[in-house]
């Protein structure tokens, strides 16, 4: 492959011929509307499952305040990436930004954090898909791995078939998911009794665990400030993966114009749906307490409103929300693995694209295999049908921890780019600026600290640490010697050389 090489900053770059990039091409297609759909679609499953587990540890009030704090963090993050993505319009996303700001190791560490998030998040989502389909079709619990396999085969296949089909499917399932949520909200309003159902969580004075208050009227913060902190990782599920949009930069028709629009329109859409589901879903029978352990809260809501028969039919449509996220995040991990591979951080063969469709088929298959095998390993080591809480809890926490760490690094990246690279052309500038990035860093640190100290999350943190240890060992021993001047790397090297030249002139 290479015809030249260059040593720089503890890494070795290989300068490939054009044939290297010819078999790694992507195709431009997406406009602002498609990017909005991709961003909303990637996250919308969080309105259907996962977020509600925060009621068990924070009650409704803790979850509400935790969601406000997480919303502030995501606004700081999305405004930051809305500035960075058109300034550095490469498919590497967060890795690309950090590579320019902090060098190869900074780019790699940020890239691995996103890799953990994007490979494990669809695994958790397909677990919830399996839970919904098990409830709808009445299949045995032991059949769940088959639902997971079917999900991966179908939606990896759709992603491989071309970027046009990927975005068309994303738009359709995202609009269906939003329509189902709107129908649920309208249907639920006549059944709402907020005080009785949403506030039906108390605390057992002996065990300190949540107990159901049949008549409601429970305290706003049954677990106090601890409950707010405990619920924050679950509130993340209402917005997790909106930050994936920069990964579509090289498949966007005009990323400098459309990327900021798509990111922020998507974020404001998700704020609206997130707070509506947080207020309405627990305010109808059977209330917040039972939702705190539910794998299908919207299905539970439809059961309360329409009864079991109609609920199953409506829930079949509701699965569209989970499918939208599953499909969109498969798109994301394909591009994320592709970009790190094209630049040499991951093995080069993973970035070879499909000859006809120009999609990163090798990366898509590799990411799906890792996610599926992790789920199977958990399934068989945790006792088969008893593994659901581990997959829905620990793998969710691993994905959230990877996300939180990447948000911390992206906030620091934004600050460093503003400080050290002020001359980079910025077609869009964050109205929150550096203070918004600082808020992102602070709230991410609080969430990470809680995950590190709370036994409930430590298994997930340990899993992330193992993933990181293996990745760093690979990069230190091999990957740093095989880097390539991909678009992200070439841009970063030129910017850092330019900044160094300015510093020398000023000196």
UniProtKB/TrEMBL annotation:
PANTHER family assigned to the protein according to its UniProt record, in alphabetical order: AMINO ACID TRANSPORTER-RELATED (PTHR42770), MEMBRANE PROTEIN (PTHR42770:SF7)
Protein name: Amino acid permease
Alphabetical list of Pfam families matching this protein: AA_permease (PF00324)
Location(s) in or outside the cell: Membrane
UniProtKB keywords: Membrane, Plasmid, Transmembrane, Transmembrane helix
Residues in Amino acid permease/ SLC12A domain copies: 46-458
InterPro entries: AA-permease/SLC12A_dom (IPR004841), APC_superfamily (IPR050367)
Transmembrane segments: 33-51, 57-77, 118-137, 143-160, 167-189, 223-242, 263-284, 304-333, 363-381, 387-409, 430-450, 456-477
Topology of this chain in the membrane: Multi-pass membrane protein
Domain of life: Bacteria
């Amino acid at each position: 492959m290479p015809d030249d090489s260059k040593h720089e900053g503890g890494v070795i770059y290989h300068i490939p011929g054009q044939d290297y990039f010819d078999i790694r091409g992507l195709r431009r297609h997406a406009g602002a509307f498609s990017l909005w759909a991709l961003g909303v679609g990637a996250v919308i499953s969080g309105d259907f499952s996962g977020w509600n587990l925060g009621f068990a540890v924070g009650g409704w009030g803790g979850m509400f305040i935790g969601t406000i704090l997480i919303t502030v963090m995501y606004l700081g993050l999305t405004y930051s990436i809305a500035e960075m993505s058109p300034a550095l319009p490469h498919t590497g996303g967060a890795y690309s930004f950090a590579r320019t700001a902090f060098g190869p190791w900074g780019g790699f560490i940020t890239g691995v954090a996103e890799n953990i998030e994007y490979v494990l998040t669809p695994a958790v989502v397909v677990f919830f898909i399996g839970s919904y389909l098990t409830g709808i079709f009445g299949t045995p619990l032991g059949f769940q791995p088959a639902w997971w396999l079917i999900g991966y085969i179908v939606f990896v296949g759709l992603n491989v078939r071309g970027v046009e089909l990927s975005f068309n499917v994303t738009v359709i399932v995202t609009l269906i998911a939003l329509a189902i949520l709107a129908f649920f909200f309208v249907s639920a309003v006549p059944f709402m009794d907020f005080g009785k159902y949403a506030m039906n969580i108390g605390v057992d004075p002996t065990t300190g665990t949540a107990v159901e208050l049949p008549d409601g009227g429970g305290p706003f913060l049954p677990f106090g400030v601890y409950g707010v902190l405990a619920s924050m990782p679950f509130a993340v599920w209402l917005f997790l993966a909106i930050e994936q949009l920069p990964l579509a930069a090289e498949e966007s028709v005009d990323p400098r114009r459309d990327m900021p629009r798509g990111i922020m329109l998507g974020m404001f859409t998700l704020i609206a749906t997130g707070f509506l589901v947080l207020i309405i879903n627990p305010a109808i029978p059977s209330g917040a307490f039972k939702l705190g352990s539910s794998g299908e809260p919207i299905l539970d809501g439809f059961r309360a409103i329409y009864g079991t028969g109609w609920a199953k039919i409506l829930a079949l449509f509701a699965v569209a929300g989970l499918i939208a996220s599953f499909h969109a995040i498969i798109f994301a991990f394909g591009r994320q693995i592709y970009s790190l591979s094209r630049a040499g951080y991951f093995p080069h063969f993973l970035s070879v694209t499909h000859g006809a469709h120009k999609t990163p088929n090798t990366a898509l298959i590799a990411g799906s295999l890792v996610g599926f095998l992790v789920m199977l390993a958990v399934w068989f080591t945790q006792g088969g049908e008893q593994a659901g809480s581990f997959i829905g809890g620990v793998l969710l926490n691993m994905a959230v921890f990877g996300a939180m760490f990447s948000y911390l690094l992206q906030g620091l990246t934004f600050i460093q780019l503003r400080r050290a690279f002020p001359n980079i052309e910025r077609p869009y500038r964050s109205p929150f600026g550096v203070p918004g990035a600082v808020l992102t860093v602070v709230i991410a640190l609080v969430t990470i600290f809680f995950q590190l100290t709370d036994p409930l999350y430590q298994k997930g943190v340990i899993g992330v640490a193992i993933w990181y240890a293996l990745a760093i060992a690979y990069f230190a021993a091999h990957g740093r010697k095989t880097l390539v001047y991909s678009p992200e790397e070439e841009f970063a090297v030129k910017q850092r050389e330019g900044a160094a030249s300015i510093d020398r002139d000023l000196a």
